[in-house]
Amino acid sequence: MRIATLNYNGNQILGVRQGDNYVDLSKAAANLPQDMTALLAADALGQANGAAQSATDDALIPADSVTYLPLVTNPPKILCCGLNYRDHAEETGNAIPDYPIIFMRAPTTMAAHNGPMILPKAASDYDYEAELAVVIGKGGRHISNADALDHVAGYSCFNDGSIRSYQFKSPQWTMGKNFDASGGFGPELVTPDELPKSVDNLRIQCRLNGETLQDSNTEQHIFDVQTVIATVSEAMTLCPGDVIIMGTPSGVGSARTPNIWMKDGDVCEIEIEGIGILSNPIVAE
Fold this sequence. Notes:
- InterPro entries: FAH, Fumarylacetoacetase-like_C, Fumarylacetoacetase_C_sf.
- This is Fumarylacetoacetase-like C-terminal domain-containing protein.
- The protein is of the alpha+beta class.
- The chain folds into two domains: 2-68, no CATH class; 78-284, Fumarylacetoacetate hydrolase, domain 2 (Alpha-Beta Complex).
- It is 15% helix and 34% strand.
- The chain has helices at 25-28, 36-41, 45-53, 86-91, 145-148, 164-167, 225-235, and strands spanning 2-8, 11-18, 21-24, 60-62, 67-68, 78-82, 101-105, 110-112, 117-119, 126-127, 130-136, 152-159, 162-163, 183-190, 203-208, 211-217, 243-245, 267-272, 276-284.
- Strands 1, 2, 3, 4, 5, 6, 7, 8, 11, 12, 14 and 17 form a twelve-stranded mixed β-sheet that branches.
- A hairpin with a 2-residue loop joins β2 and β3.
- It is globular.
- The two termini are 36 Å apart.
- The mean pLDDT is 97.
């Protein structure tokens, strides 16, 4: 199942992908929430899929007639795992961490598929980061590694756009990771049944203006999805709609000579095997 948060005729809806169309769940399942977090909290993904499978033609809308919204418009938490690819740790000269490096993003940092990622006035060193996004469907605390994947609603693409000068002004990365509309997210939530169970062998790429700058595989994860979920849940309750971003592979602009930064007018694409392509134009503030 592939489901997206969409704006259609001025209304926020959830759409289930069927070929070149989306099934408008506001028509096919009017009793269900039209908000991803609320749908997940209601444990209603299965109902949404069933409604989409039995939908009539009047619930179909062409995919090219919608505007995408961030996949989860107001997630309770966005948790990011830094320095989580072996090849990225090597290119930056960092030691392989022995414990997940976790930082947070605010919901205001998200940009939708095809929506602009904003190059801020404050700095020009705007770097791309292709990342796997994990969306939590079942909440919990003290989740074991063995049970962790049962808490996953699905996966998507994320571009963890980073203002490097602000990221490294202090030991905490928060400022450089939290500029408004700096991180692309989407286009669709892909449920686990469409992917390998452990998602640890997916090709992941970043293209800037068509040039491939990152090309790696999630097998490079230092900490896999279940380990990150279990670790985070030692400290905090995970909630339906929480988003966990799994780190970026080698090839970032800050590790290149000369550096490569995203500029006004660029288009950045993140592609993850089996999940899809997230595309964002870069627009100056």
